[in-house]
Amino acid sequence: MSDLPNCPTCASEFTYDDGLQYVCPECGHEWSKAPSASEADLDDGIRDANGNLLVDGDSVTVIKDLKVKGSSSVVKVGTKVKNIRLVDGDHDIDCKVDGIGPMKLKSMFVKKVTS
């Protein structure tokens, strides 16, 4: 049969995959494909703002204007950053931003670019 989960609201088995989420045609409930909190706890990886797992060498896009500390520069929304490197600490992404230079970013302010 289907490997899709049953609807958490009405337990219908007729759910379908709609891109980034599951949908129940019977009750209209929609829910994210993102792993539950317990699954996320098992995985020690670094995740972006949408919950996608990041790895070294990924490309990400900035989702919020970020002021550069000690400068009047700003990293604008939509800035694409290529070839990131994951590091331990509060700012968990080490990268080089075009026009600004090397810097560290928090994963909560980026989203993974999918090819």
Quaternary: single chain
Q: Give the SSE string.
A: EEEHEEEEEEEE
Separation of the first and last Cα atoms: 31 Å
Strand content: 25-35%
The count of β-strands is: 11
Shape: elongated
Mean pLDDT: 87
State Rg. 18 Å
Poorly predicted regions: none
Helix proportion: under 10%
Largest sheet: 3 strands, antiparallel
Order of adjacent strands in the largest pleated sheet = 1-2-3
* DSSP helical segment count: 1
Q: Which class best fits the helix and strand makeup?
A: mainly beta
Key phrases:
single chain, 115 residues, mainly beta, three-stranded antiparallel β-sheet, 1 helix, 5% helix
Description:
The protein is mainly beta. Helix content is 5%, strand content 28%. The strands form four sheets. The chain has a three-stranded antiparallel β-sheet with strand order 1-2-3, with no helix packed on it. The two termini are 31 Å apart. The mean pLDDT is 87.
What's the topology here?
Layout: E1 16-17, E2 21-23, E3 30-32, H1 37-42, E4 60-62, E5 66-67, E6 74-75, E7 80-81, E8 85-86, E9 93-97, E10 101-105, E11 110-112
